[in-house]
């Protein structure tokens, strides 16, 4: 029974946290949402609920830095793989083999 309670606490810690509602001058209410948890117990923004004129909307939080970093890492990985492929088997012909095969015993 104690183990079940500890497991339920662990799943509660790795969940969403809702911020205090903030009301703007035009009557819009904003409620922020973050995901807590992980190894370092950090909070990461997920998005915000926006309530305006009785309609609720969801605005996701986009981390442009993380997207750009992933693009750079994928480009670097592609360049490394292409370089290794060319160094392992170059696309140009091996001229030393062509010359050696092209020699005739009469010319020696």
Describe what this molecule looks like in 3D.
The chain contains three helices and five strands; from the N terminus they run H-E-E-E-E-E-H-H. The protein has helices at 2-13, 64-88, 95-102; strands at residues 16-18, 22-23, 29-37, 42-52, 55-60. The N and C termini lie far apart (92 Å). With 108 residues, the protein is α+β, with helices and mostly antiparallel strands. Strand 2 and strand 3 (29-37) form a beta hairpin. Strands 1, 2, 3, 4 and 5 form a five-stranded antiparallel beta sheet that branches. The longest helix has 25 residues, at 64-88.
Q: Which helices and strands, and how do they pair?
A:
Elements: H1 2-13, E1 16-18, E2 22-23, E3 29-37, E4 42-52, E5 55-60, H2 64-88, H3 95-102
Order of helices and strands: HEEEEEHH
Q: How many helices does DSSP assign? A: 3
Radius of gyration: 30 Å
Low-confidence stretches: none
Structural class, by secondary structure, is alpha+beta
Largest sheet: 5 strands, antiparallel
| Beta-strand share of residues | 25-35%
| Number of DSSP strand runs | 5
Report how far the terminal alpha carbons are from each other.
92 Å
Q: What is the helix content?
A: 40-55%
What global shape is seen?
A: elongated
Mean pLDDT: 79
């Amino acid at each position: 029974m104690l183990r079940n309670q500890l497991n339920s606490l662990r799943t509660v810690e790795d969940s969403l946290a809702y911020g205090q509602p903030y009301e703007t001058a035009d009557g819009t209410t904003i409620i922020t949402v973050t995901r807590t948890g992980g190894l370092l117990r950090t909070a990461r923004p997920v998005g915000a609920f926006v309530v305006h004129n009785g309609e609720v909307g969801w605005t996701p939080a986009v981390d442009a830095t993380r997207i750009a970093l992933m693009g750079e890492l994928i480009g670097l990985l592609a360049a490394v793989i292409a370089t290794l492929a060319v160094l392992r088997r170059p696309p140009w012909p091996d001229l030393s083999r062509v010359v050696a095969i092209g020699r005739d015993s009469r010319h020696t």
